[in-house]
User: What shape does this take?
Amino acid sequence: KLSVQKQPAKGKEKNERKPVSYVSIERDAEIQEARLQLPILGEEQVIVEKITEHDIVVIVGATGSGKTTQVPQFLFEAGYGSDAIPGLIGVTEPRRVAAITTCQRVKKELNIPNVSYQIRYEGDVTEDTKIKFMTDGVLLRELQSDFLLSKYCVVVIDEAHERSVNTDILIGMLSRVVPLRRKQNRPLKLIIMSATLRVTDFTQNSTLFATPPPVVDVGARQHPVTVHHNKETREDYVREAYKKVCKLHRTLPPGDVLVFLTGVQEINRMIHLLRKTFPEKAADEGDKEAEKTEDISAKPVQLDKYDPYENKDDSPTEVIVQAAAPDQTDTKEQESSESEDEDIQPTPHDRSLPLLALPLYSALPPDQQQRVFNSQSDDYRLVVVATNVAETSLTIPGITYVVDSGKVKTKEYCPVTGMSQFRVVWVSHASAEQRAGRAGRTGPGHCYRLYSTAVMGNVMEKHTEPEISKKPIDGLVLQMKNLNIHRILNFPFPTPPSLSLIETAEKELQFLDLLKPGQTVNNTPVNKITDLGKQCVHLPVSPRFAKLLLLAVEQNVTQFALTLVAALSVGHLFTGPIPAPFKPRAGHARLLGDFMVILTAVGAWEHSGAGQPWSAAHHLRYRALIEIRQLRRQLANILAQNHSVTLEPLLKPPTPGQITSLRRILTVCLGDHIGKLEEGTGSTDLYSTEVVEENVQLHRESVLYGLHTEYVGFCSLEQESTGVKMRVVFGVEEEWLPTLLPNKCTFSDPLDQPPPAYSNVSGEVMCHRTSTFGVRSWVLPAVNL
Ligand code: ADP
Ligand code: MG
Assistant: This one.
């Protein structure tokens, strides 16, 4: 289908000596018509000219103007990726969803197969790929092995306004790569695309770009949106949103609705309520499917083919799991209070349109995400209930009404303690405007804000803070050190991270032996990457887990560590309470704690045939399990480059010896996350740590909760309303602290108490030394060293 015609260059700019070739594409008539509606189509020539004339171009335009789907096509048609300008057209997205769905869309629009995507553990890139969509993390990793990005002729950084850490760093790095490629006479073009939000961070930033890059403003074809504020701001915004949608559906003319909530639970609650109130459209095939997976009826749970817990005496062969849907209680409460409100009496509505309610959030399987794009119809009103993925990354066509809770869920990170916390907070003005704008894409629209103008005026921030000030940056610091960027503070960040974030990251990396103090510059030692650090950089997981994998290879427990690290990297595994058979009951397995639960859940699922129904019946998130397998395979492949590692097809239960090895390497990697029991009688247990001043508790979900384990190691601390909680926990042996973590101990003199003594067993003089551990100076028993 590709035909290439050579055309003479316009010869406008001395930099551009090569003739530009134009590739012509035969698009489907329907698609071509839809494209012509996009505001960006009118700017094609300007955009292509600017990119020809300048190495760096910024494109801004309202969400939905066509940047993501069209700019890669403009580039392709302008000859980028052809013989005249060889190399890949790379497009980075901060979100996986966007990388996959836009890849599919562009492939369809261009009607050629050479469009591919790559996310952390899956992709379909081949030698024939011309346009490659990827997450920003993928390109950042490619920079590690090829700083000049020699495979690419143009890189498009999309959604720059989202200010993800990876995007910020990419822009910083590429600001240095572009001049280098220019010097080599193989220019790399860089396009930064952003919604109309504070682009001055990129354009008016002289540390980043010496001369400000040209900005092409796509000019929105935005219809007027009438904004309505609630007079009062009510606490239960899900209920308010529900009321608003009911009223709107009963009284306002046809038009689809987009509702912004903050998380999966809320979205499911809302969808559930809407489907009960307006049942007409719930008979849809796909909905039944969706409801089926959400509704887990009480089923017997059995681990027949995979049961790692040897001590079976006290375990019943069949355990009934009480499957309480997590938000069932919420729903009941909602329904009972709802009758008080005349406004929203769930009267069966007669003459008006049926209603189809669909969820949209990133953890939703891709085919269900795609449904919101394919479900527009005159036969019913579509209500999409979404997280803020619908704010800018995905544009649902034909939305007339927006209902905005004004809230967003963010993970907040404290650089001093390394503690993180999920919180629902107010969005910024910029986000609220963005959300409202979603109603005016195809015609005049309305936005209903479930908060007052006072909240907007007095409480909300103007702009959302960039992610780099809110996340741990240990992985990033290690990657930068690997690229010999030693002084992180001097790096051209669009917004620099705080000094305390950098210090926390460097301290942790030093503890893990991934960095070591190097030469002193201006009286401060500059940390350099160690050989171990260099090995860790290539594994796409956090440095701590990368080290865990390398230690596991040495200790012959690779299979288990691969599963654990993959599981801890993909996010929540369980959708509800952990089924009892997954919980270790005694002995070694119990001391591996929550890590053992992960191994058992994944192992049992694989041995059951790795199906979706099994995972749903056991409260496991199917998508997470699939991702664990993919990531595990990818990690095994990377390890296999330098070690003899093969991935076994099925996970075996670990032996007691292997469990001890796992606990020992976990102790080494989490040696700065150890808790010592200070007081309590089981459920009231309080632990001291070196991370925070106050004593902390085990999270209720931990299988070690209430077991009075003297020393534990934990993955993270989370602030909850009832105190600070340790999550993902295992048991540590006291005598391991001085032997496995000597750098954290202060030892007694070898000749001090107790004095050296001859050992009949070993035939050697033994120096038993006592020690204190960590900043809390926990007194440890004497060991021979
Ligand atoms: P921008 O990047 O400027 O926000 P996009 O290129 O994402 O704009 O969207 C342009 C148009 O393409 C929108 O009307 C959107 O609805 C449509 N579109 C984007 N992705 C898909 C998809 N996967 N399926 C169908 N239509 C899509
Ligand atoms: Mg976009």
Notes: The chain has 25 helices and 32 strands. Residues 67-68, 158-159 surround magnesium ion (ligand 2) (CB under 6 Å). The chain has a mean pLDDT of 84.
